[in-house]
Amino acid sequence: MNDKEMSVYEHLGELRKRLIIVAVFFVVALVASFFLVEPIILYLQRADEAKELTMNAFRLTDPIKIYMQFAFIIAVILTAPMFLYQLWAFVSPGLYEKERKVTLSYIPLSVGLFLGGVAFAYFVLFPFVVDFMQGLAGRLGIHQVIGINEYFQFMLQLILPFGFLFQLPVIVMFLTRLGLITPMLLGKIRKYAYFMLLIVAAFITPPDVISQIIVTVPLCLLYEASIWISKISYRKALLAAQQEEADL
Known about the structure:
This protein is mainly alpha-helical. It has a two-stranded parallel ribbon. The two termini are 34 Å apart.
């Protein structure tokens, strides 16, 4: 067995260790989430968007399904920082000291942007969408019988994608540091990016112009912020490359 094979086995062993840590943390987070699920579900049912609605369970298993689904989502969110840290710890030995510090800072930034995206979707977009749906049902003379499973499924399908969409600045920063994209490229494809963001907004919102604008505007602002962040990362990458050449 040569050194290269030993290195591969060592990497696999290290990866296995990191995955076990994440798995154990997830189990602990899942247990902890059982103490948070009930207050969160009750809070969401008492919110302005839901307090006038009568939640119905059309299947005997609907309450436990919602309970377990929320427990799993809470556990995933709680585990995400640990997963990102273990991922960083796995790849950090191959990075320079400055790169280690920079990439480590991505973790709280990523978590913050995810929570910011979820908060934006829940507190800004979701109330508007619910009012739109209820207003449309009223104009059409439709009496709505709301299923608790359908209500929370719709809520989660609407707000969770925004947590991932708000990761755009972090992804751009990371890809810029890797040299895969540049701020010049992002500026050049700006109009195409706006068009794609408009399609995304149309896909995840109801078919009305106002809600699509509510979604598209912050996404476009995120893209512009990503260009600005990319410029900073690009300059730092150039300086790091120049410093490396000088050291050689």
